[in-house]
Amino acid sequence: MPAGVLGLLLARRHLLEGLLFGIAGAVILGIVLGLLQPSQILSIDRENFAAGGLIVEGIEKAVGVSIFTLFLMGLVAGLEATGLLQRLVRAVEESTRSTRSAEWRIFGTLSAVNLLTTHSTVAMITVGDFTRRIGERFGIGGYRRANILDVGVCGWPMVFPWFIPAIIAASTTAAGEAYGMPRLGPVAVGLANAHSWALFAVLLLALATGYGRQEERQDKS
Predict the structure, then answer these.
(1) Is this prediction's pTM over 0.70?
(2) What is the bridge-based pairing of β-strands 50-52 and 43-45?
(3) Taking the domains of the chain in order of start, what are their residue ranges?
(4) Hey, is 97 helix, strand or coil?
(5) How many CB atoms lie within 10 A of CB 92?
(6) Distance between alpha carbon 96 and the CA centroid of its chain, in Å?
(7) Plot region of 163 (φ>0 → left; ψ -120 to 50 → alpha; else → beta)
(8) pLDDT per residue over 192-215, tens digit each?
């Protein structure tokens, strides 16, 4: 099923279509292999006017995150309406003087916007055009610019406790309490995310030393 979802995404089909295909395929495969019963997917108790099953449980577990996301969108809209993010980007662009400082400012600006909005997509859109302009101005390669953006966008949500990925990861540890495993909070989950911290370490080392930097020479003829 994961291969099917990935294939649809590579074929440029909609994300929702790919996810629905993956879910439907997993359910059908589970029933065919005898791992799932139809009643486990959705059951209706007519006498008590209640419903249960995997679908209902999934909806119930998503309520908290959904409400959090609604409040988050209000925060993001407020920040965008003030023009604060756009002024921040313009100020950074005007004060950049070298390739090294340009790379640090790309990462710093993206991090600031990401931490303010707690929304990776908003941060990427806000800083994307600035990154392209300043990168071309100081000869920073496209792949290097993309890597700087990607590490910031994908790294911070995994380590800071007010981002949705860290909150969701912490909430999943509740299932381990029945087996004697401790329930972790978002702070503990973020601090223990060795992969994200390692990505930051590699990026900061590359920015500090210039390792992997490739200058783009534009043809001015």
Answers:
(1) no
(2) antiparallel
(3) 83-214
(4) coil
(5) 19
(6) 28
(7) beta
(8) 888 889 888 988 898 888 887 765
